[in-house]
Write a structure and sequence with these properties.
Blueprint lengths: L1 E4 L5 H10 L5 E4 L12 H4 L7 E3 L5 E3 L1 H12 L8 H20 L1 H4 L4 H22 L12 H16 L5 H10 L3 H9 L4
Parallel strand pairs: 1-2
Antiparallel strand pairs: 1-3, 3-4
Helix pairs in contact: 1-3, 1-7, 1-9, 4-6, 4-7
Bound molecules: glutathione (GSH).
Glutathione binds next to loops.
Length: about 190
């Protein structure tokens, strides 16, 4: 498989998942100019123009983090319970992050005004509180093992840290702890962010 990614972008969640699931993959970096590091026009690979995009190995390209993360989980039998409430809670949290929380950062990525960023930071804190409640004093967001929800949460918390957006302290502690997860540490090195 080939993961089209940008360092530190939401594609990092798929990257972490591929490593945690031990699925063989190759990385191709995509620049802001929409060209891959190999010189191809990324818009021809993913007409939506954004990462992540996952080439399943036969030229079929899957997009949208939620779909890619579920695909990785189902290919490996890891990172998502096969049935039951833990499956639905992990999917619920991941959908919440790929839509509500991801969108919450828009003013930071689109050069918003200080006022827009301030308002976004307040909204984001409230959204992150939902996840802090779900985490409680557990090690992982859902159940007792790393799931696709943790892969995505780590990235959202890294964005918050980078933008100076406050999050509940239990989530800051969680992020510090998760940096020690082998799959996360490996992804950060591979993306040149360690
Ligand atoms: N709905 C997409 C959003 C993907 C997305 O926003 N990707 C960003 C990086 S986090 C991107 O590539 N932005 C570059 C652009 O839109 O030009 C998903 O969940 O995968």
């Amino acid at each position: 498989m080939i993961l089209y990614y940008a360092p530190g972008a939401c594609s990092q969640a798929s990257h972490i998942a591929l490593i945690a699931a031990a699925l063989p993959h190759r990385l191709i970096k995509v620049g802001r100019d929409k060209r891959t590091e190999e010189g191809s026009d990324f818009n021809l690979i993913n007409p939506k123009g954004y990462t992540p995009a996952l080439d399943l190995g036969d030229g079929t390209v899957l997009t949208e983090s939620l779909a890619i993360l579920i695909y990785i989980a189902e290919q490996s039998g890891m990172l998502l319970a096969p049935s039951g409430l833990e499956r639905w809670r992990a999917l619920e949290a991941t959908a919440f992050m790929t839509s509500e929380i991801h969108r919450g950062f828009t003013p930071y990525f689109r050069n918003g005004t200080a006022q827009e960023k301030d308002s976004a930071a307040q909204t984001l804190f409230t959204l992150f509180e939902t996840l802090a409640t779900q985490l409680g004093d557990k090690q992982y967001l859902v159940g007792e093992r790393l799931t696709i929800a943790d892969c995505y949460l780590f990235v959202m918390l890294s964005w918050a840290a980078m933008m100076g957006v406050a999050v509940p302290s239990s989530l800051s502690d969680y992020r510090a702890r998760m940096k020690g997860e082998p799959s996360i540490a490996q992804a950060l090195v591979a993306e040149g962010l360690a």
